[in-house]
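hey so i finally got around to running the thing on that chain from the lab meeting. sorry it took forever, my laptop kept dying and i had to restart like 3 times. anyway pasting the input first so we r on the same page abt which one it is
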Amino acid sequence: AHQLEYQEILEGVKGDDQCKRLASQFIARFFNNFTDLAEQSLNAMLDLCEDINVDIRKQAIKDLPTLCRDNKTQLAKIADVLTQMLNTEDQGEVTVVQNSVMNLFRRDSQGAI
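ok and heres what got predicted. didnt touch it at all, straight out
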């Protein structure tokens, strides 16, 4: 149910900045309802993490740990991606990445390492 709407949200990562921010929030919120689209969802979030706009990147980085809220399948991959993002030059972005890594670590310290 509502799979087409969720796929439309996934397409939102190609929209304007406001659409990208909303897409990030909605993907994180509804991720666990569409496990058959988990890989597409994660790829969409990772695309947002590489956006040219730092505010979009920060939103996606902040939302990434939510993908592991009920299902820790993606946790190691997300932890790896976040760790790679720690070498950014923007201090505000580094802080968001650190918070997200700590969020993952609190959810599952073994899986986050």
